[in-house]
Amino acid sequence: MDPSSKQGKEQPISIYQGHALIVTTVVGVGVLYMQRGIAQTAGADGIWTILLGGLLAMLELYILTKLLQRFPKQHSTVWMPRLLGSEKRSGVGKILALPFFFAIALFWISASALACRTFGEVLVTAIFPLTPMSVILLTLLVTAVFVASTPVEVIARFNEFLLPVLYLPVILIFAVWAKEGEWLNMLPLFQLSWKEAGLGILVSFFAFSGSSIVFAFMGYYQQPEKAVKAHMSAIAVIILIYWIVTAASVAVFGPDELKRLMWPTLDLVKSAEFPGMILERLESGLIAIWVVAVFTTLVNLLAALIDIIVRLFRIQDRSRKWIGLALIPVLYFLAIWPKDIQDLFFWNWIVGVYSPLVSITVGLILLAIALLRRKKGGDPHVPTPPTS
């Protein structure tokens, strides 16, 4: 469907698909190791700091959603220049909007590259020890770029279809927790100082990066007035997933051992022994399913980046695939930039901190300007670049 459909036709993304986009973007490769960082800062108290971190993520997405609801069915490349500029000098608004787009796009491209490299490390460690990292990276990147270059409605349906698959590992992890977990490992609670608790909450909050894709996709929503409910329910689902993974890891390993594990979620599944178990190595099945999670994160971030580039520079829509192909060398270079696994975790931490800081800062600045200038509404349709 043409996203700039005339009156009477709908935008391509349903409200449920918007919900799916948030869940599948935020829940990515980080779920394989995030509980280690939480345990290092909060210990057993990580089982409640992850909940408060999730509430901060809700606040972040709420700010972005309320901002974008002021400009229903408008692409960010349309309303942002109008908000920052004037009717007489539209070019000024575009120039002023560029730093905001650049700051957001910087997260999308760096997070895509690091997610690809991190999952490559998981595959090399657990399944393909003899496969060159470059082969794994290029395979993931080329495939993700191919899908990300498709129209927005295809991306939305892709996420809607794959969302249920994401829940399967969570059910398995909950079963491992019920069978192997020791409740004493989760005690005592509330042993942190105020400073330690604050740090633990922030570290938990940084695990929820990725909500900024709404800058690219919310302009395509059929019912943007219902976006708050869809987005808040998406974060609630992510909080539940993260809480189960974190609590299960603490219960099975204890906070002290958890701090020393490189891939706690894989080790968690390896520890499972169920009577009459058909599959001997459950972690292989987990990785196979988690390929979907990483792949959807990659696709969504790259699709958002490609869409912003196409709309901002008025490039022909059919050129999406060429933009995607042009991004592959940049993504590959960023993916191989970390020298080793510790360096990779360091850059994941930096990008995890950068994402919410940029989202909240950009969201608050633009929302404040919109309120001060009383800007809202306008052209109800998303623009389409020339197709010929």
TrEMBL record:
NCBIfam families: 2A0309. PANTHER family: SPORE GERMINATION PROTEIN A2. One of its GO terms (biological process) is spore germination. The chain crosses the membrane at residues 12-34, 46-64, 95-115, 127-149, 161-178, 198-221, 233-254, 287-310, 322-338, 344-372. Keywords: Germination, Membrane, Transmembrane, Transmembrane helix, Transport. It comes from Marinithermofilum abyssi. It is a multi-pass membrane protein. This is Germination protein BB.
